[in-house]
Amino acid sequence: MFADRATIIIRSGKGGDGHVSFRREKYVPDGGPDGGDGGKGGDVIFEVDEGQNTLGDYRHKRKYKAEDGQEGGKKRCHGADGADIILKVPEGTVIMDAASRKVIADMSGDNRRQVVLRGGRGGKGNQHYATPTMQVPKYAQPGQPFQELEVLLELKVIADVGLVGFPNVGKSTFLSRVTNAKPKIANYHFTTLSPNLGVVDTENGGFIIADIPGLIEGASEGVGLGHEFLRHIERTRVLVHIVDAASTEGRDPIDDIYKINKELEEYNPEIAKRPQVIAANKVDCIFDDGQENPVDRLRKEFEPKGIKVYPISAVTGQGVRELLFHIKELLDSCPKKAIVFEQEFFPEDALINETLPFTVEIDEEDPSVFVVEGPRIEKMLGYTNLDSEKGFAFFQRFLKEGGILEELEAAGIQEGDTVRMYGFEFDYYK
Predict the structure, then answer these.
(1) Bias regions of kind Basic and acidic residues — which residues (predicted)?
(2) In what order do the strands lie in the sheet with 418-421?
């Protein structure tokens, strides 16, 4: 079966511990501290792989772990950094926190590679803790712990056009006629189980089209495989309703369109507002029985609403060229910007709510310098890349929501004063 969803547990590497050792040589019996620093833990990185089109690799293995950093050594030897783990996913994969379903990363558009969990920073060796009054420090800093998270991976198909319709209306036949896709075609009353993608080439340009598996009533509430199918429509810019105009199985095509639009509206109102076109399929099976032509009925019902109706036969090819030209015109009139889901969940946010201690003190030599230290601060700096825009935005939130700014203000900090945190300094401004 097409694998478009998987839940896995990811873990970054622990930072290596700093080392406690002292210089011991033949003529230097009481040398100073020379313990090396521990290595940084490996990151968990997600990367787009153009050769993949399913999440099948993640259905059989649940846990993925980056390497831990190595402990520091004697003679100031730095421990080796832990290797990153790179998880390859198909384009269009959305990574979410499994508990809240909030988006961590969308591997689409320009986002081809993203660090989701950072490894812990390595601890400092005892060489860093020698002072005039403590020349034999027997303490080294432990490495920072790893981060672990359960994430949900969902593949949301990237296509310009989505074919929607109830099962057995001819979507797969239509797709096989207009593209090089080879979907399995049969008289299945349940539905196609996986989205099929194909490239359409027309004289006025090409586009990607997806046969979204057949919907059923109640899909927006998760009935059947409703949510699994509806998620693939989220990125499409134009929707094509394929209906059985001949009612070969007794279905009313007008009723079908209203039912599908109701499901789309209930799942995501924004999707239902996208441009639509109706392909009245199976016109080769319509016979003049003295009743009103079903294509005329469709036109009367939907064209006043701005939805064009094209009579086609996916089997013979009748009317298909005109439909494709209209679809391309609709695409050209829509924004071309790729639909990318914004990040809603930041794994580092757990640091804001942690109850680890910290202290705020005024520097004895310079009263305009405020020193903030403690396990909470060390942990935050170890996981945060302050050189990146996202990392710095998180740092600002950490100061505010973690109560650090409140403590600094209580200690009497003024605009222009300096805040120092383990070698990192910044000026304070409200």
Answers:
(1) 14-28
(2) 359-362, 369-373, 418-421, 424-427
